[in-house]
Design a protein that fits this description.
Layout lengths: L1 E3 L15 E5 L7 E6 L20 E4 L8 E6 L5 E4 L14 H9 L48
Antiparallel strand pairs: 1-2, 2-6, 3-5, 4-6
């Protein structure tokens, strides 16, 4: 699975880039090794000139067990690795962002009304947020053109 991560780009006159969610596993059911070099798992990407921070990233297994972001890790064959990549920080005063752009992001499912930009949601590890639908999922916005839980395409 690979899709955009809703509510991950920091608010601003220009919104920060949206992060991604990627899940991988071994089809043969065998363990595999990965070398992590992931950043922005503790400190969120900062906004600039009044822009809000983006969401932090993280890694975890289906079981909910966190995976260290740096160094080598063995992923058990019966587990999938979920990687939430951070969003970018916003740029400029969010009050100057055109309403039509905000509405378009909501319609596309990239931004939800559940978001508090001073405290972006994280659904992984010790930073889990009550806004996550479950321990490993973020809130899904209602979308007129998609069924609930349908992935946001990453084009």
């Amino acid at each position: 699975r690979k899709e955009f991560r809703p509510d991950s780009g920091g608010d601003g006159e220009v919104r920060g880039g949206h992060g991604q969610v990627i899940e991988i596993g071994n089809r043969e059911g065998l363990p595999f090794e990965m070398s992590g070099t992931y950043e922005r798992t503790v400190h969120p990407p900062r906004g600039r000139f009044g822009g809000k921070p983006g969401a932090t990233g993280g890694l975890e297994l289906d079981s909910g067990e966190p995976v260290k972001p740096l160094g080598r890790s063995i992923i058990p064959g019966d587990q999938r690795l979920r990687m939430e990549f951070p969003g970018g920080g916003g740029f400029g005063d969010p009050a100057k962002r055109p309403t039509t752009e905000r509405q378009g992001e909501r319609r596309a499912g990239l931004v939800t009304d559940l978001l508090n930009w001073r405290n972006p949601p994280s659904c992984i590890g010790d930073q889990r947020d009550e806004r996550c639908v479950s321990s490993r999922r973020w809130p899904r916005p209602p979308h007129p053109e998609r069924s609930p839980g349908e992935a946001v395409p990453n084009h």
